[in-house]
């Protein structure tokens, strides 16, 4: 169960037993053993992973038990227990069968009873690769466009079909109802696309109101498990620790799971701002201290310079982007347990947008400089022993659902395929406090079934590589 300063949030798991056979399964080090494995999931939690080509009953993997009916086709699974469903589409090589034991009169009393007598779903995943669900530690799922002012144009009175007449449009609906309905409607396509892409957990770095996260928990939206910063702390509060503490309290009251500080300029900012920070170490320590007292942690947007030095010294949980990270900063970050979330892909895309004339010319030169520097910073972090976690920084309709592109960028930047896959799964899960992030007993079965070998990370640029996504043991796409 995930927890936050706002209380525990239930995770909705498929209560049936799922037995996945025949796939090559990712190990803790990001590699895949040539031997296939059987993964047994009960109530959404992995109870056994047996390698070597035989199932838990001693029969070869992929073989149905006596009396099992194996049929191709589709089933519908409730994703969050609240009525939101997606087709569980199985490809040609992955067939879903259902068998029932002799006792169907009531729920099993424990995991062993459930395995013996409950509903059992068999998934023959021969010729497929099974990896943990991807954790995207830097998204903007409340956004649909690169230019924030365009978001306002989406908040009209149309429903998804353009016909109007949603419940929030009723004359008696409150202003909050109208606002929440607009937020949820705008976020819904990006959330669903992100989950279908294999991302089962996200940390939103600003723009996703807590209402979006809560709608996911309640089953009113389909998407990954979410933690959110809600909004950001910017330079108007710099050099005022008391005001910074008050802002932290305000954000947590709004439902923030993380506090995000923007400590340097971004790609649209004037040249030179990447090395300038309005916040000193005293400011950032005040933010970290106040956040810790409220049960949340701090992430800092920092390209380089004093912003990185002060963030690491203040004890933040993660630094975002960090493309001008120095060796000394990397050593300090490793010693302090600070995680680097580089977000490589977005800057390549911004550089391409500028090249096409979609952004000001000054952005083109700035973005090109960033793209050149970024891999060097990642290599410095790796050499120093800093943990690197994946973050896409994606925030447009076109980008949502292409998150796994970032894995290929991480591999090319110096992590290699295995390191990039670990960054996209286990490193992110640990940063977000979501277990080990591995496919091992005791962990929630958030997983991705792939049609191609992901150790060639280029295949992850194609969303069609993702065949089936599991969230809490349920197949959701």
UniProtKB/TrEMBL annotation:
Domain Amidohydrolase-related intervals: 130-475
Protein name listed in UniProt: Amidohydrolase family protein
GO MF terms, alphabetically ordered: hydrolase activity, acting on carbon-nitrogen (but not peptide) bonds
UniProtKB keywords: Hydrolase
Annotated stretches, region: Disordered: 96-119, 146-177
Pfam families: Amidohydro_1
Regions of compositional bias (Acidic residues) in chain numbering: 148-162
């Amino acid at each position: 169960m995930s927890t936050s300063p706002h209380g525990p949030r239930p995770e909705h798991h498929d209560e049936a037993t799922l037995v996945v056979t025949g796939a090559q399964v990712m190990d803790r080090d990001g590699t895949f053993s040539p031997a296939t494995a059987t993964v047994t999931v009960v109530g959404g939690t992995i109870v056994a992973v047996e390698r070597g080509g035989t199932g838990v009953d001693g029969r070869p993997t992929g073989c149905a038990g006596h009396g099992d009916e194996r049929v191709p086709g589709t089933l519908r699974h409730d994703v969050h227990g609240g009525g939101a469903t997606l087709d569980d589409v199985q490809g040609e090589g992955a067939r879903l069968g259902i068998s029932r034991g002799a006792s169907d009169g009531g729920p099993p009393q424990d995991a062993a009873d459930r395995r013996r007598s409950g509903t059992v779903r068999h998934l023959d995943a021969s010729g497929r690769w099974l990896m943990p669900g991807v954790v995207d530690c830097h998204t903007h799922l409340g956004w649909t466009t690169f230019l924030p002012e365009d978001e306002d144009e989406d908040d009209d009175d149309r429903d998804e079909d353009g016909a109007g007449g949603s419940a929030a449009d009723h004359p008696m609906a409150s202003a909050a109802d109208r606002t929440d309905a607009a937020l949820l409607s705008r976020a819904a396509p990006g959330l669903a696309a992100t989950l279908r892409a294999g991302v089962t957990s996200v940390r939103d770095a600003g723009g996703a109101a807590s209402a979006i996260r809560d709608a996911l928990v309640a089953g009113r939206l389909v998407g990954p498990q979410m933690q959110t910063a809600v909004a950001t702390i910017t330079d108007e509060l710099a050099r005022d620790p008391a005001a910074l503490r008050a802002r932290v309290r305000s954000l947590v009251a709004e439902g923030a799971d993380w506090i995000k500080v923007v400590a340097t300029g971004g790609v649209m900012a004037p040249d030179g701002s990447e090395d300038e920070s309005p916040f000193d170490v005293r400011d950032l320590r005040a933010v970290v201290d106040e956040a810790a007292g409220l049960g949340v942690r701090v992430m800092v947007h920092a390209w380089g310079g004093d912003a990185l030095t002060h963030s690491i010294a203040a004890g933040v949980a993660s630094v975002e982007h960090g493309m001008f990270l120095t060796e000394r900063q990397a050593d300090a970050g490793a010693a302090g347990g600070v995680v680097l979330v580089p977000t490589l892909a977005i800057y390549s895309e911004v550089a391409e947008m500028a090249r096409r004339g979609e952004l000001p010319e000054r952005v083109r030169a700035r973005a090109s400089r960033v793209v050149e520097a970024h891999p060097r910073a990642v290599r410095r972090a790796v050499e120093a022993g800093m943990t690197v976690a994946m973050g896409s920084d994606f925030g447009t309709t076109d980008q949502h659902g292409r998150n796994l592109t970032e894995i290929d960028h991480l591999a090319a930047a110096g992590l290699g395929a295995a390191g990039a896959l670990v960054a996209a799964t286990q490193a992110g899960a640990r940063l977000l406090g979501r277990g080990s992030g591995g496919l091992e007993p005791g962990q929630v079965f958030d997983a991705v079934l792939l049609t191609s070998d992901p150790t060639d990370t280029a295949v992850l640029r194609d969303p069609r590589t993702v065949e089936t996504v599991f969230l809490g043991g349920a197949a959701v796409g």
